[in-house]
């Protein structure tokens, strides 16, 4: 219970400070948005974990209650884990236990997206809140990256001296479908999502990652239940694919390395007989559909965008003044054409 509360508070604070850019403890608008995001995301996580728990208990598993993991960055949580204290007794139990969590979380994520999409704010270009310190940063000389920063440059998009690296969230297929049904078209690349829709996006990402058929991920349990003899080979193969997929999104390599370090890439032993029931096959098909509707090859993209083309607004959402815009343009011109060094 304490971990659940701590995770809720972490999600609430991280969304307010890092995603809304304001203090949710003092700003009413930030508090409301952060509360919506936290309630929706925790509902997705809770439904996912409790579906695992209830279905596993029904199949005779010995297991713990879920442990929720707060994390002071990204979306405020590292998800949750359940400790299995007994091995699966049959393939049907393993499949249904593995599929229950992603399916339940997917349903709640879809509801969150559907409720939040009507409040989407579309932008032709990115809209960002103006920070006066940006002018001071632009007036500093450009220093080439060295050391670790230079080594990590391959993760960043190619950009000019006056470009700002922006993080862009890709649309999962289900968001495109719901966007067309709810708004007439999917959210665009630079759209601002409502907190509920953002939580639904995170839920889709977690669903897709969990359904990848590697080791002790939920998808790994499903693959293991379908074909116990080949599940481990598939797990090794997809670990290599995930490491290589870092060229699309560095997160794939992060998850692959984490699974390796934790030993969670190894499938659980499961009896080969009896085989799967018809119900288990149908549930597995639903899990496959959920994976297809949530998977994004590059969930988070980095894009270099010209500073002068960004729609800059103040804290109240109004366009910045002509004087500030003139200062920005002057700083950008000086950056492109710096003065010659004095002799």
Number of helices: 12
Radius of gyration: 23 Å
Largest sheet, in brief, is:
2 strands, antiparallel
What is the rounded distance between the termini?
68 Å
Strand tally, please? Answer: 6
Task: Describe the strand arrangement of the main beta sheet, using strand numbers.
Answer: 1-2
Give the proportion of residues in helices.
40-55%
Structural class based on helices, strands and sheet pairing: mainly alpha
Unreliably modeled segments: none
Shape: elongated
Question: What can you tell me about this protein's structure?
Answer:
With 343 residues, the protein is mainly alpha-helical. It has one domain (87-336). Helices cover 54% and strands 8% of the residues. It contains twelve helices and six strands. It has helices spanning 2-19, 28-58, 91-116, 133-139, 147-151, 173-183, 195-210, 218-226, 228-244, 250-262, 278-294, 322-336, and strands at 67-70, 77-81, 127-129, 163-169, 300-306, 311-313. Strands 1-2 form a two-stranded antiparallel ribbon. It has a two-stranded parallel ribbon with strand order 3-6. Strands 4-5 form a two-stranded antiparallel ribbon. A hairpin with a 6-residue loop joins strand 1 (67-70) and strand 2 (77-81). The radius of gyration is 23 Å and the shape is elongated. The termini are far apart. 34% of the residues are buried. The mean pLDDT is 88.
């Amino acid at each position: 219970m304490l971990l659940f509360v701590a995770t809720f508070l972490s999600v609430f604070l991280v969304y307010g400070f890092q995603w809304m850019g304001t203090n949710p403890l003092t700003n009413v608008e930030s508090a409301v948005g952060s509360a919506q995001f936290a309630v929706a995301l925790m509902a997705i996580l809770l439904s996912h974990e409790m579906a695992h728990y209830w279905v596993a208990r029904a199949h005779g598993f010995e297991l713990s209650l879920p442990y929720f993991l707060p994390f002071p960055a990204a979306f405020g949580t590292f998800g949750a884990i359940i400790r299995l204290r007994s091995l699966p007794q049959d393939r049907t139990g393993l499949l249904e236990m593995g599929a229950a969590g992603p399916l339940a979380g997917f349903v709640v994520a879809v509801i969150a997206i559907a409720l939040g999409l009507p409040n989407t704010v579309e932008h032709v270009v990115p809209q960002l809140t103006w920070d006066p310190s940006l002018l001071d940063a632009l007036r500093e000389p450009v220093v080439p990256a060295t050391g670790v920063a230079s080594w990590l440059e391959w993760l960043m998009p190619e950009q000019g001296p006056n470009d700002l690296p922006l993080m862009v969230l890709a649309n999962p297929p289900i968001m495109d479908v719901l966007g067309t049904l709810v708004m007439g078209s999917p959210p665009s690349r630079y759209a601002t999502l409502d907190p509920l829709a953002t939580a639904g996006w995170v839920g889709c990402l977690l669903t897709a990652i969990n359904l990848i058929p590697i080791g002790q991920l939920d998808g790994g349990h499903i693959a293991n239940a379908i074909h116990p003899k080949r599940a481990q080979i598939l797990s090794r193969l997809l670990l290599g694919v995930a490491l290589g997929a870092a060229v699309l999104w560095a997160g794939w390599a992060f998850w692959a390395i984490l699974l390796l370090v934790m030993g969670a890439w190894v499938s659980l032993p499961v009896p080969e007989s009896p085989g799967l029931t018809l119900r288990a096959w149908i549930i597995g098909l639903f899990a496959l559909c959920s994976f297809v509707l949530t998977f994004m090859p590059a969930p988070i993209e980095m894009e270099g965008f010209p500073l002068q083309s960004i729609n800059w607004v103040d804290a109240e959402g109004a366009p910045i003044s002509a004087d500030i815009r003139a200062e920005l343009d002057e700083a950008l011109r000086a950056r492109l054409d710096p003065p010659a060094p004095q002799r």
